Amino acid sequence: MELTLLGTGAPQGLPRPDCPCAACAAAVGDEARAATALLIDGALLIDLTPGPAFAAARAGTSLAGVRQVLLSHPHDGPALEVPAGLPTPGRVADGRELALLDGHRVKALAVDIPGTGYEITGTEGERLLYLPPGGAPAGLDNGHGNSGGVVPYDMVLLDALERPDGLARLRATGAVDAATDVIAVHIDHGAPPGPELHRRLAAAGARTVPDGRTLVVGEYHAVPDLPRRTLVLGGARSGKSAEAERRLASFPDVLYVATGGTREGDTEWAERISLHRERRPASWRTVETCDLLPLLADKAAAPLLIDCLALWLTHAMDEAGAWDDGTWEASGRRALRERVDELVAAVRATRRPVVAVSNEVGSGVVPATAAGRRFRDELGRLNAAFGAECEQVLLVVAGQALALRG
């Protein structure tokens, strides 16, 4: 089954007409995108771009063989143009299946917005799922195996940036697995421009392609390699926690490890914790602990998000008596180094996906106290040792993630 993407952008396209934003200004060349539309084996057209015949011609194909046109969502962008000779566009009711004369089967799937998702099965059994802009599955029952289990799709096209929870739902049911080719479409001007877009999608196990590209559904494609271990560094209010959470937003059953605990009577701390909780997907679980070794040793598949290593180090220094100069020299230094070595060894051996957050230190004011300088130095050493065991290390500055490794 061949799929030609006549467009990969949001309904208004990218750049949006008359929009002065930086993302629209940078949307040139391969980063300029018409509204998403799919041409399948030259016979089935899903959604329409402005000027569909011209879009098809640019892709080196024709709409002359199209026998069915389906819409997935209310088209709020430019007025639809239906070229002469094309069938009248229509929608399929949720749950209904449509058999086309050329052998394709189309099943309409419910989504959680006004619109329709489409599961298309090719003549040789290849299967793709297409979801409308801003949509996630409202229910999924695609069992086609003898046991009634869920069969992973060969390809999924969806709004991976705005609705990562939709991808997480598909992963939770087994409809998306490590071999599924996940293509991000409906890309709008809220997406980061340039290489950052592709880096962010790769972290979710997805990719995007330029308009006009033809893909073969079911053909092996090297899906983006997901790093097992990632360290996200940044200064205060840099956006490092949001970046770490974003990297796991498309995965189900994430275990959020909060190392800060609670601070009775500290209303500012309570407000910070509340904001973090509101930002997390409802499906994530939270545990408040600094005992990271058992969690890293657990072979459960659920990813870990550790926020943050600086607070873990504070707890470890408390237990080692490292704040007192005498205790530090007598036993605290050795005890803390043993704790750090144990943590680093556990990170090296873990089989769970891990994203850890830590404060980048040493670039600002030198602390006025010996204890403050000791904490700064030890956190720098911890970051370096932890990062050495990670496939990817990011530095977040002013909300922008810079890849230091991977």
Main β sheet profile: 7 strands, mixed
Oligomeric grouping of the chains: single chain
Helix content: 25-40%
Decide which structural class fits the backbone.
Answer: alpha/beta
Distance between the first and last residues' Cα: 33 Å
**Which segments are poorly predicted (pLDDT under 50) over 5 or more consecutive residues?**
142-147
> What shape does the CA trace take?
elongated
**% residues in beta strands:** 15-25%
Summed over residues and divided by their number, the pLDDT gives a mean of 89
Order of helical and strand elements: EHEEHEEEEEEHEHEEEHEHEHEHHEHEE
Q: How large is the radius of gyration?
A: 25 Å
Count of DSSP helices? Answer: 10
Which keywords apply here?
single chain, elongated, 7-stranded mixed β-sheet, alpha/beta, 406 residues
Walk me through the structure.
This protein is an alpha/beta fold and 406 residues long. The strands form three sheets. The chain has a seven-stranded mixed beta sheet with strand order 5-6-7-8-9-10-11. β5 (97-99) and β6 (105-110) form a beta hairpin. It is elongated and about 85 Å long. Mean pLDDT is 89; it is low at 142-147. α8 (309-320) packs across α9 (325-349) and α9 (325-349) packs parallel to α10. The chain has ten helices and 19 strands.
Briefly characterize the structure:
The chain is built from ten helices and 19 strands. By secondary structure, the protein is of the alpha/beta class.
Walk me through the topology.
Elements: E1 2-7, H1 22-26, E2 37-40, E3 44-46, H2 52-58, E4 68-70, E5 97-99, E6 105-110, E7 116-121, E8 127-130, E9 155-158, H3 164-173, E10 181-184, H4 195-203, E11 206-207, E12 214-216, E13 229-234, H5 240-248, E14 255-258, H6 267-279, E15 285-288, H7 292-297, E16 304-307, H8 309-320, H9 325-349, E17 354-359, H10 370-388, E18 392-397, E19 400-405
Parallel strand pairs: 3-4, 8-9, 9-10, 10-11, 13-17, 13-18, 14-15, 14-16, 16-17
Antiparallel strand pairs: 1-2, 1-12, 2-3, 5-6, 6-7, 7-8, 18-19
Helix pairs in contact: 8-9, 8-10, 9-10
